[in-house]
Amino acid sequence: MKLIYAIESLTRWSGAIGAVLVLPLIGALVTEVFSRYALGRPTLWAFEISYMIMGAIFMLGMANALRVGQHVSVDLVTLRLSSRLNAGLRIIGYLLFLPVLVWLVWELGHYAHGAFMSGERSGRSAWNPVVWPIFTIWFLGFALLVLQVIAELIKHGLMLAGHALSDSEDKRS
């Protein structure tokens, strides 16, 4: 289905971007350790940039984690159920989860916009960067999670209706 493919393409890209962000995170931490212990001069920015990059890694990766089935779940029950019953159970879970996610995306959008408009700063270090970029990443990460939940609802709805998913539509492909 084209909608599932489109959503999961976005999900894959966001997961890949999150994975690549590990490199600047390592760079920032190595720079901080070298600067602090070899030069005796800690950086002003490494603490804040590291938690912001780590947050971005998590936010950009959570939709992809759902796509490939890596979120925490209780398999003791679901492994014993038929695939159709399992799909029905997952649909119920996603339907309960979706309104909370939509509300969270809405609020994070307002939060990021407000931080941008006010020029809000972190206040956690001497660097004191603006926070709207990381709030925007949070917004985008949860928006992508909403889209992936919709894709999962469609896939599990098709499974519940007895339609087999092709390899390209299967979340673990």
List keywords for this structure.
73% helix, 173 residues, single chain, mainly alpha, 6 helices, elongated
End-to-end distance: 15 Å
Secondary structure tally: strands: 0
Count of discrete alpha- or pi-helical segments spanning 4 or more residues: 6
Main sheet properties: none
Low-confidence stretches: none
Topology pattern, helix = H, strand = E: HHHHHH
Total tally of structural domains: 1
Strand residues, percent: under 5%
Query: How much helicity do the residues have?
Result: over 70%
Structural class: mainly alpha
Rg calc: 20 Å
The residue-averaged pLDDT reads 93
The best one-word shape is elongated
How is this structure best summarized?
Helices cover 73% and strands 0% of the residues.
Describe the structure.
The protein has six helices and no strands. By secondary structure, it is mainly α. The radius of gyration is 20 Å and the shape is elongated.
Task: Produce the secondary structure layout.
Layout: H1 2-20, H2 22-38, H3 46-67, H4 75-78, H5 83-118, H6 132-160
Helix pairs in contact: 1-3, 1-6, 2-3, 3-6, 5-6
